[in-house]
Amino acid sequence: DAVIDGSSCRNEPAAALLRRHAEQALGLLADQVLPGPTGESNTLRLHARGVFAILAQGADAADAAAATAAALLAGNGVALVEPIAGKALRAAFIESGVPGDVIEVVAPAATGGLVAQPSLAGVCALAGDVQATRAVVRALAERTGAILPLILASEVRRAGMLWRFCAEQTLTINTAA
Fold first, then answer.
1. What span, in angstroms and rounded, lies between the C-alpha atoms of 15 and 89?
2. Which of 12, 51, 57, 63 is the most exposed place for a label (fewest CB within 10 A)?
3. DSSP 8-state class, residue 23
4. pTM of the complete model beyond 0.70
């Protein structure tokens, strides 16, 4: 509650974003029944993807908090690239009850190695530095394996975009058999 409750969060815009994300998470991330032909049931499920790198150096504190909250609400871990404010943000999440092992603060110099990690599930680029974002896009394009999502600050600000931090799974059951 310390991070989501506006009275204990010093940054009111960050608290408002976090509150909105938390309020909408249950509905947005719940299983959804999809239409289908007679004799078939279809369900869309959203699952955690893994660890997201959140590139927050030089970003707005509210965006860094919202991106971290969105990744955590979707069930992911976070590698937060922001050496100074990242430690305070991590401490605030831990104080609110988030386990410490799901958020790691990483130095900006380690960004290249982080993006190259095979276990990485996605990247959230928050800073307005066009050159840095281009470098991350290039690094993601050069990776082998699955294409990873790149989430920008404009998406993080909208709670309805929580699905971007998830992997989709469709369950189809033949009910006529």
1. 12
2. 12
3. H
4. yes
Question: What is the distance between the alpha carbons of residues 80 and 68, in angstroms, rounded to a whole number?
Answer: 8
H/E segment holding residue 151? strand 150-152
Q: Which of 164, 172, 158 is nearest to 66 (CA)?
A: 158
- What beta strand segments (E) does 23-83 contain? 32-34, 40-48, 51-55, 77-81
Q: What is the DSSP string of 93-136?
A: HHHTT--GGGEEEE-GGGHHHHHH-TTEEEEEE-S--HHHHHHH
Q: How many CB atoms lie within 10 A of CB 163?
A: 14
- C-beta of residue 124 within 8 angstroms of C-beta of residue 156: yes
Mean pLDDT (whole number) for 1-5: 34
- Inter-CA distances, 121 with 39, 59, 76, 85, 115, Å: 35, 21, 9, 23, 9
**Greatest C-alpha distance within the chain:** 59
Whether the per-residue pLDDT at 159 is higher than 70: the answer is yes
Q: How confident is the model at residue 1 (pLDDT cuts 50, 70, 90)?
A: very low
Q: Is the pLDDT of residue 139 over 60?
A: yes
User: Are 18 and 44 a contacting pair, CB within 8 Å?
Assistant: no
